[in-house]
Amino acid sequence: MKNQYQDKIIHGDCLEKCKTIPSETYDLIYLDPPFYSQKEQKLNSRDGKENYAFEDRWATIDDYRESLLERIKILYFVLKKGGSIVVHCDSSANYIIRKILDDVFGYSNFRSEIIWHYKRWTNSQKCPIPNHQTIFVYSKNKDYKYNQILEDYAPTTNIDQILQARKKDHRGKSVYARDEYGNIKGSGSKRGVPISDVWTIPFLNPKAKERVGYPTQKPLELLERIIKLYSDENDLVLDPYCGSGTTLVAAKILNRKFTGIDISKDAILLAKERLEKPVISKSNLIKKGFNSYINAQKEYLNILTGIDLVPVQRNKGIDAIVNIKDKDPALLRIQRFNECIQDTINSLNKASINKKFSYLIVIQTTISLIEVENIQNNLYIINSAAFSLKELIKNLK
Known about the structure:
The structure is a single chain. The protein has helices spanning about 15-20, 60-80, 95-105, 160-165, 220-230, 245-255, 265-275, 285-290, 300, 340-350, 385-395, and strands spanning about 10, 25-30, 40-45, 50-55, 80-90, 110-115, 130-140, 150, 165-170, 175, 195, 200, 235-240, 255-260, 310, 320, 330-335, 360-365, 380-385. Helix content is about 25%, strand content about 25%. It is α/β, with parallel strands linked by helices. It has 2 domains: about 10-150 and about 195-285, Rossmann fold; about 295-395, type ii restriction endonuclease, domain 2 (3-Layer(aba) Sandwich).
C-alpha cells in the first residue's frame, strides 16, 4: 500500500508541514539546515539563467537555536522508533546543534560524529583553511538500522595484520591468535575494513555534471553513503530542507521512498527537474578508491577485475590476497613485464614465509622458454595471454 507521503515534494516551512504528518512515519531523516553563516547564500545555475539564493542571517544566536529546536522536536515526532536522524552542519554552530540533539533525542542515542573531509582552496585569514563539515547521527532508540560498508585497507596496513587472526591477551593487548599447537591462526576471508567516521569525498567542483547552481549543494555520493548506512530498500526518507533535491535523487537511485520539503519555490521546481532526469557524476577518487592513487601495482591488478580479492600495498612479493570459501586465502603475484617467471615465483615464495595461506598463485604475463624450478604442490601458474599482448603493444609504441 502506497504511503501518501511517498515520493512527494512539498512546498512550505517544514515546521508547519510536519505537524500534519502522522507520528513515526519516516525510517530516516537527513537535514542540511542553515549553518548560521550570517550571510545570504546565493549561486547561479550552470547556464547563468537562474539565480538561487536563501537567507542565513539571524538577529541573534538564540533566534537560530530556537528555530532549529522547534524543528528538531517535530522531526523526532515523525521519526519511527527504529529510525535515525542525520544532521549536517559546520563549525559555525555545530556545538549548538549537538546540544539540541542531546536534549531532544537523549545523549544515550548519539551514534556518530562523521567528518566529511574535502579539499578547497580559499584565502584564509589567520586560521587554517576549513576543509571539513560535521554530520551528527542520532537514533530514536537503541534498535536502529545500520548497514556496514567496507572499504579498502590502508596502504600502511601490514600483510600480517590482514592475514592473521588477533585476540586480546590477559593484559588486554592485541596479539596474534594461536592454535593448540602454537601455530598462528588465519583470519579467514578478507573483505576490507569497516568504514571510518572520516569520509574523504570531493566537494562538488564548478564543472561537475550534477551541479545545478544551488548554494550549499552536497555531492550525491555523500548522500548515497548516508542512505545506504542508515536505511534499507523501500524505506521512507525525509529531507525537511531538501533544497535542490540531492537527498531525494539519492533515495530514488537506491530504491528508497522519499519526502522533500523546502520553503523555496525555486528549490522545489529544481528538485522536481532533477528527479525527472537525474545526473550522476562519479568521482574517480571514490570509484577507484583513495588507495588506488598510490598503489604501484594497480595496472597489474586491473586484469583481475571481478575476482574476490584484497590488494596488498606494503609487500614487494605479494600483490593480492584471494578469498577462497572455507579455506585460508591464497597469495597472488602477477609477473612484471621486465621480470622472468622464476623471479616472480621466488619473490612470492619468499614473501609467503610464515604466512597463513592455502595456495600460491602466479599470473604469468610473458612467454617463457626457461624451465621453472621450485614448484610447490600448492603453487599454481596461470597464463594471461591477454595481458601479455596488452603489455607488448604498450611497450612497442
